[in-house]
Amino acid sequence: MRIGLVGVGRIGAFHARTLASLDAVDELVVTDADVDAARSLGAELGVAVADDTTALLAAGIDGLVIAAATPAHAALLSEGVAAGIPTFCEKPVAATLTETLALTTLVERSGVPVQIGFQRRFDAGYRRVQAAVRAGELGFVHTIRANTHDQAPPAATYIATSGGIFRDCSVHDFDVVRFVTGHEVATAYATGANQGADFFTAAGDVDTGGALLTLDDGTIVLVSATRYNGAGHDVRLEVLGEKGSLGVGLDHSLALDSAESGVNFPAGPRHWSFMDRFQPAYRAELAAFVDVARGAAPSPCTVRDALEAFRVAEACELSRATGRPIALADITGA
């Protein structure tokens, strides 16, 4: 397999190293708007470098991985699909709901396999909970708690184009709740606040957000997100059911101290970034994409999945702005 990769920033370079290590990838070709950065990574990994995206798409690649900056995703995904090349794209596929809807239609009509980068679907803990829920081990599920707490905020320049905490951060929780339960969100009620850097307010964003979701079967989902969690990177899912409960992220890496006397849990070490926390999942999702690209498996996370998660994020942002609950049926992009 010959795989092409666009974007060699932090996540792109990480993906390049992963792809170069996969047995199924015979050759990797990278490119970036910053040609010097692409050449530097190419020299480090001993892989080919294309001068630009046009040259990359013409290089006879079997699959395309998009890890460029968010504003470039929609155009690059469209180019990959137009060339008939199976494509992996980091989330979000586009900056707006209208554009995401248009891309979903384009991809589904094309028949070109596309996989979206929601790596939590490939984490062992989330997959274990999904299996338990789908098998009825927990009985009926009545409450889910989903947390994404970053240890420290990204740069102000990133926040300005991120789309907001629900679209950028909590969207992973929205996707994995759908993945675990098999149900859709019916209503969303969200809020947010700023106590940190001024650049969040300047961007119209918040550094901490919370949402109360109701699924179409009545399950209540409590979502928490923050850019300031000094204890460490804390990503968890707790699924509470009639017959039992399961949690993801409740191991010794948990970024939370117990106030109870004599308790030595968690013992550490803790995670300090999402790339550290989900390294095995990132490797698994790219291995899965290689199978998609060679026609051995369908996409495990489609553009339609990305659209549905984005709709929940849109509902949360609208709820935060208006102070009222939002029905997902009203989030149409029209």
Could you please describe the fold and organization of this structure?
The protein is an alpha/beta fold. It has two domains: 2-119 and 283-302, 3-Layer(aba) Sandwich (Rossmann fold), CATH 3.40.50.720; 121-273 and 309-330, Dihydrodipicolinate Reductase, domain 2, CATH 3.30.360.10. Helices cover 39% and strands 21% of the residues. The chain has helices at residues 10-21, 35-45, 53-57, 73-82, 97-110, 124-135, 156-160, 165-181, 198-202, 274-277, 279-293, 303-322, and strands at residues 2-6, 27-31, 48-49, 63-66, 87-90, 114-117, 141-149, 185-193, 208-215, 220-226, 234-241, 245-248, 326-327. The strands form two sheets. Strands 12-11-7-10-9-8-13 form a seven-stranded mixed β-sheet.
Question: Top keywords for this entry?
Answer:
single chain; 334 residues; alpha/beta; 6-stranded parallel β-sheet
What's the CATH H-level homologous superfamily of the largest domain? Dihydrodipicolinate Reductase, domain 2
CATH class of the largest domain: Alpha Beta
How far from one another are the termini? 40 Å
**Total of DSSP H or I helical runs spanning 4+ residues:** 12
Biggest β-sheet, characterized?
Answer: 7 strands, mixed
Radius of gyration: 20 Å
CATH topology of the largest domain: Dihydrodipicolinate Reductase, domain 2
Shape: globular
Number of domains: 2
**Unreliable residue runs:** none
Residues in helices, as a percent range: 25-40%
Main sheet strand line-up? 12-11-7-10-9-8-13
